[in-house]
Amino acid sequence: MSGIQPYLEECIANIFQAGKTTASRRIIVGFSGGLDSTVLLHLLQAYVKAQPTLPLLALHVNHGLQAQADEWEQLCVQKGESYGVKTYAMRANVERNAGDGMEQAARHARYQVFADFLQEGDLLCLAHHQDDQAETVLYRLLRGSGPLGLAAMRSRKPFAEAQVVRPLLSCSRKELEEYAQLHQLTWVDDPSNLDASFDRNYLRREIMPRLKSRWPAVNETFSRAAELNQETVLLLEELATSDLAAVACEDGLRLCRQQLKQLSPPRINNVLRFWLLKNGRPLPSRANLLRIREELLGSQAAGLAVVEWAGAEVRIFEDRLYCMPNLIPAPRVGTEIIWKEALSGQQLDLGAEAGTLLVTAAQGQGIKSQLFEQACEQGRLIIKWREGGERCQPEDRAHSQKLKKLLQEYHVPPWLRGRLPLVYIGEQLAAVPGLWVCKGFAAQPEEKGCELDWRYPSK
Q1: What element of type H or E holds 429?
Q2: Percent of the chain that is helix, strand, coil (3-state, to 5)
Q3: Are the beta carbons of 13 and 21 closer than 8 angstroms?
Q4: Rounded to an integer, what distance in angstroms lies between the CA atom of residue 95 and that of residue 282?
Q5: Cα separation of 167 and 156, whole Å?
Q6: pLDDT tens-digit profile of 137-162?
Q7: pLDDT at 223 over 90
Q8: HSE on the CB side for 228, CA within 13 Å?
Q9: DSSP 190
Q10: What average pLDDT does this structure show over 74-100?
């Protein structure tokens, strides 16, 4: 027990040794209110008193899965504030019918809350300990995981634009209990932790005690196995870095199918995992990796082919593999938005299914400012989506053409065509943001213009 606090301080010092600490960097404790996170918050609260440039915050995620969830949220906020730590509470959106089960759905929702809350340079401190690490190794072994899964939890890793750190990963739960008793700490016990129908709880309550009775050092052994697998993962990442440089195209968000097909299946799987992780997507199962190789790398792969799983999907278009979040249905046919106040620098939220529009002032570019501003004032600047049969004439074309043909010519992926906003002035199509402005609406070199840009997560 006596070694916990020196270890934590050494861990935090090492984290900041690599770069200069600034006042904008924050330490955020994932605070469930249980024993582990309570000990971590108590330790960090004492540590940062000597570090005035390190703001310490606590974040409680309310999953809404227990009848007492709101009550626990209030208790956690009060507990954090009693330590002098600004404490936030956010509600997670748990997909209750997720195919991977409630445990995984809650974890995915929790980390999404973390990602939304974190800022660049933040440190998210989680209270996982050595017992958790051992359970994770065994759990993933039973699920048939490879080296990446068996590497389990790392003491430090990038996450979103921040870093996740686990200062207590080499401490046992028994040590944390002794620390809590010494400092007379109180915490919340989640009754769901007693429910052996959850896999992790079953391992924790039924299997691990039996293993420890036969092999007392099982936690240390599993943790050492995790460290060995982490070394293997580092070697695989080095290989994947080299392979990704050879198969990536354009902005690195896409992979060239023909180059990828030159690799062996294990190297394809390895580089696909690495690519997805770099782009912030959850890893696919072995079955989905096989589907990607067979359905997207095969010669018959078409533009609407997709392999998807919770949190990610991979598509193919023009010999390029795209990774993106799960798409939700495109705007319904006939949907319209009247853009009443399109000021320079303004961003128009079109909804999760259609992204955002941004307008900027640009000399000789975009829609003529006079037409644009008049249409706004008159309520005639309208955003619509494809219904079929539209025609328009881009400024640089001699004749009008079908919108469908133009989108193909401009290499717009099929899954984006129904989400691409169309800007009308009155009944006439005036512009397709990010692609072209139609004849009669385009600002000339001597005229002021309003340039429109479309931003979509998978674009």
Answers
A1: strand 428-432
A2: 40, 20, 40
A3: no
A4: 15
A5: 9
A6: 999 999 888 898 899 999 888 888 88
A7: yes
A8: 8
A9: P
A10: 86
At a CB cut-off of 8 Å and minimum separation 6, what does 397 contact? 439
Is the separation of the CB atoms in 279 and 323 below 8 Å? yes
Question: Residue 278 is which amino acid?
Answer: K
- Per-residue pLDDT of 289-307, as tens digits, reads 999 999 999 867 666 789 9
Q: Calculate ∠ Cα 155-156-157, nearest 5°.
A: 135
d(CA 42, CA 85): 10
pTM for the whole structure: 0.72
What is the DSSP annotation of 221-237? HHHHHHHHHHHHHHHHH
Q: Which helix or strand (DSSP H or E) is residue 248 part of?
A: strand 248-249
The three-class DSSP label of residue 125 is strand
Judged by DSSP in three states, 36 sits in helix
- The span from the CA of 33 to the CA of 107, in Å, is 16
Write out the two tokens for 284: 């696919």
Q: Are strands 56-62 and 123-125 parallel, antiparallel or unpaired?
A: unpaired
How many angstroms separate the Cα of 110 from the Cα of each of 106, 179, 201, 249, 368?
A: 6, 27, 18, 33, 46
| pLDDT beyond 50 at 18 | no
DSSP assignment of 165-205, as one string?
A: E-TTTTS-HHHHHHHHHHTT---PPPGGGG-TTSHHHHIII
